[in-house]
Amino acid sequence: MNVLCIMQIATYNLNGIRSALNKGWMNWMQETSFDVVCIQELKAQNEQIDLEAFAQAGYHVYTETAEKKGYSGVAIFSKQKPDHVEYGCGNQEFDKEGRVIRADYGDLSVFSIYFPSGTTGDVRQSVKYVFLDYIYEYLMTLQKTRKKLVVCGDYNIAHREIDIHDPRGNKNSSGFLPEERAWMDKWFGSGYTDSLRVFSDAPHQYTWWSFRANARANNKGWRIDYISVTDNLKDKLRSATILPDALHSDHCPMVIELDT
Q1: Are 109 and 150 in contact (CB under 8 A)?
Q2: Whole-structure pTM over 0.85, yes or no?
Q3: How far is CA 35 from CA 8, 20, 148, 191, in A?
Q4: Angstrom distance (rounded) from CA 232 to CA 137
Q5: Domain-by-domain residue ranges, the chain?
Q6: Check: CATH 3.60.10.10 for 6-259?
Q7: 3-state secondary structure at position 162
Q8: Mean per-residue pLDDT of the chain
Q9: Which residues participate in catalysis according to the annotation?
Q10: Above 70 in pLDDT, residue 2?
């Protein structure tokens, strides 16, 4: 396959694609026209999405939905038809929640992953830790044969203190727990690069804000959405940008430009 010289790859947790469409997300897709858009939290089944409208906008659409209606789900919207699409990660419990999808373009693989949040109690926090261990080993194994990976998604973890507006007040909050942050340290120390931090180490760059207390207007947020690339792609990055002006969700997207 002839892969585009410069690929623009975006990630965006929509917190419900139908809600986002009602807020003008289709217009945003047409205006930005990114090559690949990785979506998390579809919260819809295929029959509830007008896939034909996206086809008319020039996108091939691939979804991995959850068994539970109105819950989770990931997708990849792609201008170029991939060589191969892999649905799920081979773990029945996580696959029935619709958390992982992958598209291959030549020797490049792009993931859309929705990590569990852990915010609803100890049981889901335990599930989150199991997922972190599983997905780490899954991706490390895959990298033996697919060496160039772009891992987009809502990781549901703020890595460092500069990635969260109130690190002291949230030190015991799911998403900023020491064990979660240690996993991010391990992740970025095991052959993966945090694309945003290649270009900017500035604080207050967030991708999620609570709907409460006017948090977004006051920029009291968390950076929990990432595009990680394998270290062999670091020098191929041309830009990495958060797009806080996109207002279709409680998250905002980020996008990289990758020289393929």
Answers
A1: yes
A2: yes
A3: 5, 19, 17, 25
A4: 19
A5: 6-259
A6: yes
A7: helix
A8: 96
A9: 154
A10: no
